[in-house]
């Protein structure tokens, strides 16, 4: 099994409430992919609670193979969220994929 972890740093928002609303929208849209992309075994989105750290959002997914990671990454539903919802507010992104025994 492959665990696919992505961290996002968001651009600055005018207010904390605006940032929180966008983060919740991202969480809802990403987690909804579980019912739309059959290779996803698990998907979870969490928010950083430590203001001293760099990243705002962490996405954790589990898939059977690296090929499934590619299928997920290129699925139209995922691309719509990544480009349409996250892209306009993303300042930075980091990713790691690793095998889970």
Automatic annotation (TrEMBL):
A Pfam family the protein falls into: Dabb
Domain Stress-response A/B barrel: 2-98
Keywords: Coiled coil
UniProt xrefs under InterPro entries: Dabb (IPR013097), Dimeric_a/b-barrel (IPR011008)
SUPFAM superfamilies: Dimeric alpha+beta barrel
Coiled coil: 16-43
Organism annotation: Candidatus Parabacteroides intestinigallinarum
Protein name stated in the entry: Dabb family protein
């Amino acid at each position: 099994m492959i665990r696919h972890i992505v961290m996002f740093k968001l651009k600055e928002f005018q207010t904390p409430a605006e940032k929180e609303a966008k983060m919740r929208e991202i969480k809802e849209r990403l987690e909804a992919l579980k019912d739309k992309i059959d290779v996803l075994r698990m998907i979870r989105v969490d928010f950083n609670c430590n203001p001293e750290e760099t990243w705002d959002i962490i996405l954790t997914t589990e898939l059977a193979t690296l090929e499934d990671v590619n299928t997920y990454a290129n699925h139209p539903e995922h691309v719509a969220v990544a480009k349409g919802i996250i892209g306009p507010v993303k300042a930075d992104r980091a990713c790691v994929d690793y095998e889970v025994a």
